[in-house]
Fold this protein.
Amino acid sequence: MTGRARGLDTRSRVCSTLYVFGIPKIPDVPEEERTPVVVELLEICHRLRELVQGLRDEIAELKGQKPKPEIRPSRLEEDCRNKEEDEGKSTGKRAGSAKRRKTGELTIHETRVVKADFVPAGSRFKGYEDFSVQELVIRPHNTRYCRERWETPTGESMVAELPAEAAGGHFGPTLVSYILYDYYHAHVTQPLILGRLVELGFDISAGQVNRIITEGRESFHEEKAEILRVGLEVSSYVHVDDTAARHQGRNGYCTHIGNELFAWFESTESKSRINFLKLLHGKHSSYVLNDEALEYMRAQKLPKTQLGKLAAHEPKWLNDEAQWKATLESLDVSKQRHVRIATEGALLGSVLEHELDPGFVILSDDAGQFDVLLHALCWIHAERTINQLGGFSDEQRQALAQVRSQIWDFYAELKAYKQEPSEQRKAELEERFEEIFTTKTCFASLNLALGRLHRKKSELLLVLERPEIALHNNLSERDIQEYVKKRKISGSTRSELGRRCRDTFTSLKKTCRKLGISFWEYLKDRVSGRNTIAPLPELIRRRALELTL
């Protein structure tokens, strides 16, 4: 058989597998018969095989069956080996025993003297040996306020005013704080909170628990709104991400904006770029046709006719959405794409008018709605496009492993650059990036993935211009897990007030943790009205100032 005939026979054998549902077995093609076309067909077979298995798993889940399990290799031998090595280095102390005194900084609320029994005569007193016991007191503490009532000489009735700790109603500030803490921190559902309180002896109803969780929390909402405003003001970049959030039985989204200083969450029906720009607006609702807005529209290929009309329009500042829509109608900007681009540009112009720096960096996982201002990409998410590939030959697997190793070595070099940036090192890293991401390997899918990442060079290497920004978006991923846990436990929200409270208290809790404040103490302080803990926006300013010194 001639070489051409053998090649055609090989291609026919590979192609025949594409018509078999499930691709049970991919043919083993000899090295000498692997023409470029055959190599690409084999890669298609492997990808199709993975796709079919995924569809089978999805069908099994819809039928109420279990998908194919992912069985990972056992780590038993590795764990045993590590344990043996650790035991060889053992110092004779249990892990953590030398870290600190367990009760060295413990607040003592009560001291009791324990006398020794049957002390022999002639013994000398040598002081005390301390032994601390931590205990939790959980019990109802009901107070009856007997308010004096008087009748004045004019016949009017007077009743003594309640003290501050009782001004909030029939439930004290500690109990209210406990309910809020249980619901928004421990993710305990309302029925479980109610059942626990009833068992402890409280007289409270399901409706009262719900009102405590959602009603009368305007001061918390105001503080949450200020967190975003001040956080954006004192920061040079933020992490962003979003996740699913059902509301009233419909799918929606929750967007996270934050960094090391704050965390802010907001649930909406959309995850578009328009929605994201509105979130950056905060309490503002204006649309501005400034130079930055027009430049954005031009970059997004808005037709010159519409662009000229918007550039000539007066006034440049439109106060709300109603005025903006009326302006678009008057200028005959009606096509959906044109309206979207114009709206995004006007919102961006307004965001910049409200003192957000044009050099502000948005760090994301490459979701399109976040691509505004200066956009930086997460290296962890970028590398996943490489990690998801699977070579079907030793040569391809070796090429994949080599490229991944080069990427992570380059990542380590970027981390070192952040500590000591220099122009020389910057040029070297840019050159190294070109070498890695323009490499041509024997793996066609790998070459395509490297090409896609190479086109994102400016976003992946923004850290060379701005060493203060992070290389990954893990912070946002961790913060938003708080919201995901709540969604899995409680499901969707039903009322607008409930959704707003969920976003507010999640924002306040995560921000407290970033600032080193106990969320429990924060709740007690705010609910009681003492306000001895400074407003969180003020603490964000202080922390930002400390980091710049």
The chain has a mean pLDDT of 87. The first strand starts at residue 149 and ends at 151.
